[in-house]
């Protein structure tokens, strides 16, 4: 089992120094799992203890747990190819060059300003996103954005004729028996996130685009417990050929950018472990979530926090994240 001593010490520091209210985390080594819950669920309006089983707003972990897994099922089945044009599935998008690979690897260079974006109704927001343009760095660099996975969600909707979040539930959450993961949590079961002018967000998605698009958002919106995310992590690391094949999950730890030179996979980001060619799949969520999975060593790390409580202006957590990744990877064998 990973000793995890230095990783755990860093997590304890996050809580003791009030960088986050609390943390739920898991260290995974093959079949061995160490889970721990420390700290508080909330600081405002009054301190509240953190309990095992509470749900976190996973933010962008939705992209890899849900949307990427669901779309890669269709790739395995031969229904689609990652090199298909987005326009084939979403005719409202005008640029034929943009492929699903570009969207999944964040190399589509889609950008532009949408006035009053966070105040638009869902139909107008989607229409505005689909009118954005492709910039000059198309397929030359990666630029992380929610837009790509929102559009991948539209592809899933075009094929399944159901909202993307329904697809994720049916194709991923239920088969993996992520029993409490949901897009519609009870506030009492969830840790709170930000204190906004409209009150404290609790059981409501923090991401403004996801709040508008609701069940049609593939980039954020999933709430889950530590047990749920650990279940996903153990499946991803395993040799089980269900939900996705081991071959596909191995592929997700390799550079899949158009020229294989930008260090991103399909949906997943990549980080070098012991050597530059030993790449590990990882992803983060804006609310304070981290998932690092190494299919080579069968080791993984899950960290769930609500670092945006009571305010998202918490740079200390963001600044410490790279050191936390490296600490965990240095402790793996």
Automatic annotation (TrEMBL):
Domain Beta-lactamase-related stretches: 8-314
Gene Ontology MF term list: hydrolase activity
UniProt entry keywords in alphabetical sequence: Hydrolase
InterPro entries: Beta-lactam-related, Beta-lactam/transpept-like, Diverse_Enzym_Activities
Gene3D superfamilies per UniProt: DD-peptidase/beta-lactamase superfamily
Record-linked Pfam families: Beta-lactamase (PF00144)
Gene that encodes the chain: ampC
Organism: Furfurilactobacillus curtus
Protein name: Serine hydrolase
